[in-house]
Design goal:
Blueprint (H helix, E strand, L loop, with lengths): L9 E5 L7 H11 L3 E6 L1 H6 L2 H8 L2 E4 L5 H15 L3 E6 L5 H4 L9 H25 L2 E11 L13 H23 L2 E7 L13 H11 L7 H12 L10 E4 L10 H12 L12
Parallel strand pairs: 1-2, 1-4, 2-3, 4-5, 5-6, 6-7
Helix pairs in contact: 1-9, 4-6, 6-7
The structure holds nicotinamide-adenine-dinucleotide.
């Protein structure tokens, strides 16, 4: 159902790889809400993924760019302004990758060259994106820039590895740049902290299925899906959130505020039973 929330707005969506990608859902919803958009991803992702099919479906163009390259990002903004016929109203940064996670290097055995890549791709790219756009004055007054984050930026989650550090940096960049861009151009910058979601990037996290189940049981509203995340992004791009900036916004069914839920407690107790003797002594912790 469309509410025309983005009627007449122009946007750039970074990070749609396949129809599971959060960015894919956001692109579809943005067009449904009346926006015109361009898509961007790495040349490799464009070749290996399905972004061209999405572009065809949404009648929009794909501009290749590695988000660690300032030159390529600058081209994305220049071309998008030209193609869409004016300044950009909203941008989605939906990009994340950790070579350490991919190569199964644990947090106490990180490869530092790979850590540099994790931080560059997953966090510094957000700074590069905003700085490139600002230098070109490519974002319209009251524009909205959103990046996707995860609660591992605040609290430790087994298996999330160096992506936790990348997300902490990503959220900090949203605050630091949000201050400058807000003051000078009324452009808002926020991060949305999303529930675990089964996507290509999400499935790379160690123990993802258990993490998904745990957070689903802990959240009073259950995990937020990729489609629901897209809805939230649309609201953040719309004129209804013009005074929201420099925030990390939890979109997680309440997970981040819960200490222990009834559903999680019941599962925990059931699990413990299996490890207790008849007197209730725990055999295995
Ligand atoms: N899936 C989850 O559980 C979850 C939860 C919270 C936040 N997020 C975040 O959501 C965002 C989108 O991830 P997703 O889950 O939709 O997975 P996804 O794998 O569909 O998307 C990740 C995207 O990053 C792109 N990318 C990787 N390296 C790049 C580079 N150098 N330059 C440009 N693009 C590059 C990939 O091509 C891909 O399109 C990420 O920031 C991720 O950390 C995901």
């Amino acid at each position: 159902m469309s509410y025309n929330l983005l009627k007449g707005k122009r946007g750039i969506i970074f990070g749609a790889l396949n129809d599971q990608s959060i960015a894919w859902k956001v692109a579809e919803r943005a067009v449904e809400e009346g926006a015109t958009i361009t898509l961007s991803n790495t040349p490799m992702a464009i070749r290996m993924g399905e972004v061209n099919a999405l572009a065809e479906k949404l009648n929009c163009q794909v501009i290749p760019a590695d988000a660690t390259s300032v030159e390529e990002l600058t081209e994305v903004f220049k071309n998008s302004v030209e193609i869409l016929g004016g300044k950009i109203d909203f941008v989605l940064h939906s990009i994340g990758m950790s070579p350490n996670v991919r190569k199964k290097r644990t947090y106490d055995d990180l490869d530092y060259g790979m850590l540099d890549k994790t931080l560059d791709i997953s966090a510094v790219s957000f700074h590069k994106m905003i700085q490139s756009a600002k230098k070109l004055d490519a974002i319209a007054e009251n524009g909205s820039i959103v990046a996707l984050s995860y609660v591992a930026a605040q609290r430790t989650f087994y298996g999330y590895n160096d992506m936790a550090d990348a997300k902490a940096l990503l959220e900090s960049i949203a605050r630091s740049f949000g201050y400058i861009y807000g003051r000078e151009r009324s452009v808002r910058v926020n991060t949305i902290s999303q529930s675990p979601t089964f996507t290509t990037a999400g499935s790379g996290v160690k123990g993802m299925d258990k993490l998904f189940d745990f957070s689903n049981r802990m959240s009073p509203l259950g995990n937020a899906s990729a489609d629901e995340c897209a809805d939230y992004c649309i609201v953040m791009f719309s004129d209804f959130t013009r005074k929201v900036t420099m925030q990390n916004l939890y979109h997680d069914g309440g997970f981040s505020s819960v200490g222990m839920s009834l559903r999680a407690m019941a599962t925990y107790e059931k699990g413990l039973d299996e490890y207790m003797d008849e007197d209730g002594n725990i055999i295995y912790g």
